[in-house]
Design brief:
Number of helices: 18
CATH architecture of the largest domain: 3-Layer(aba) Sandwich
Distance between the termini: 34 Å
Helix content: 40-55%
Shape: globular
Oligomer: single chain
Number of domains: 2
Number of strands: 12
Largest sheet: 8 strands, mixed
């Protein structure tokens, strides 16, 4: 397959290296040259840890139009806060029939991406998909070397338009049998568990992080008190999903399925997950666990909750604490209903209409 990887961070390099090692023709794009300087010369990524292989890239570039030209599949592997800029850059250069997959989309990533493509004058028929999570737990240990600490067993994917889901899944399954079709984009978006895990653990350990204490983020940070708080946040998320006719997995259920665990409670699932061992807490609060997961996860959760009458006091508290700590108005900067083109008065009709699209270009908002 001809595949473009957009984003050369930890996840992007791991996916690019793996797909190249499988014999695919892989182009890797990154906006800034600094992150890919080494790869511009070697075009080689070595995988270590749970995957031991080496992949030779076809192209490494800072030109996004060059990266995606002639490709079947475009894997966007950036923070979700970068989706808007990526969609703006892709709008004029996407080609008929290409499939874009957000890894992951977080909450309503595919909807924001679709809206942005249309704003940018998209004229060709393409598919926009969102994965519920990133397939790897991974870190870059040195230039061109990715340490794969964990590989998820299953990844749900939704596609806009929904009826194209089987086509995109077939493309993904050529190399990743873990990807499977979700019912629709509400299932993947409201199943965004990163929005619960990351902000809750980070903010409830904020003094330790501000003091630059070194500790294991998931095992040391997820105390029994923190886990109890996360369960409250998670119940609010699941109550919102139920209002929209969607039953999403609990945090424990999600962890056990993705990492093949057999645990009866969330605390044990977090502490006994071998893929989480050795993942250190950040040294600052100004990082993606807050700057990504608050605006692209908790903010849309809160907006939906208010619209359909679901109590979101725990979610709102996390948003307020993060806004105060970082002096950022996350509610106005995040994926609120206005930015997503959704009307609170017609929210159910709007979301149903998106699910029933025949082509992206027929949508107006």
């Amino acid at each position: 397959m001809n595949i473009a990887i957009v984003g050369a961070g930890c996840g992007g390099q791991a996916i690019a290296g793996f797909l190249a090692s499988k014999g695919n023709k892989v182009n890797l794009y990154n906006r800034s040259p600094e992150r890919i300087q080494h790869l511009l010369n070697t075009k080689e990524i070595q995988l270590q840890g749970q995957i031991q292989s080496k992949g030779k890239l076809n192209l490494v570039t800072t030109d996004i139009s060059e990266a995606i030209n002639g490709t079947d599949l475009i894997m966007v592997v950036t923070t979700a806060t970068g989706h808007y800029d990526i969609a703006k850059a892709l709008a004029p250069c996407l080609q008929e029939g290409q499939s874009v997959v957000l890894n992951p989309g977080r909450t309503f990533g595919s909807l924001e991406f679709m809206n942005t493509l249309l704003e940018g004058g998209l004229e060709v028929d393409v598919n926009v998909a969102e994965a519920n999570t990133l397939i790897y737990a991974t870190r870059i240990t040195q230039p061109g070397v990715s340490d794969i600490k964990g590989v998820k067993k299953t990844i749900s994917v939704s596609v806009l338009p929904t009826h194209r889901t089987s086509h995109v899944i077939s493309l993904l399954n050529e190399n990743y049998p873990q990807f499977y079709a979700a019912k629709n984009f509400l299932t993947t978006s409201l199943g965004n568990i990163g929005a619960v895990f990351h902000p809750a653990i980070a903010l409830l350990n904020r003094d330790r992080i501000k003091n630059q204490e070194s500790f294991d983020f998931y095992r040391d940070g997820a105390t029994k008190e923190v886990v109890e708080y996360m369960n409250h946040v998670d119940e609010e998320r699941r109550n919102i999903a139920r209002k929209f006719g969607v039953e999403v997995q609990s945090l424990r259920e999600w962890l056990c399925e993705r990492y093949d665990l057999q645990e009866n409670n969330l605390y044990d699932a977090l502490h006994n997950n071998p893929s989480y061992g050795g993942l250190l807490a950040p040294s600052t609060l100004n990082m993606r666990y807050l700057t990504e997961d608050i605006p692209t996860g908790l903010v849309p959760f809160s907006e939906l909750g208010k619209t359909v009458g679901v109590e979101t006091s725990y979610i709102d508290e996390l948003i307020d604490i993060a806004s105060s700590e970082l002096s950022i108005d996350f509610r106005s900067k995040g994926r609120n209903l206005y930015k997503l083109g959704l009307n609170p008065k017609t929210i159910f009709e709007d979301l149903n209409r998106v699910s029933q699209l025949e082509t992206l270009t027929e949508y107006s908002y």
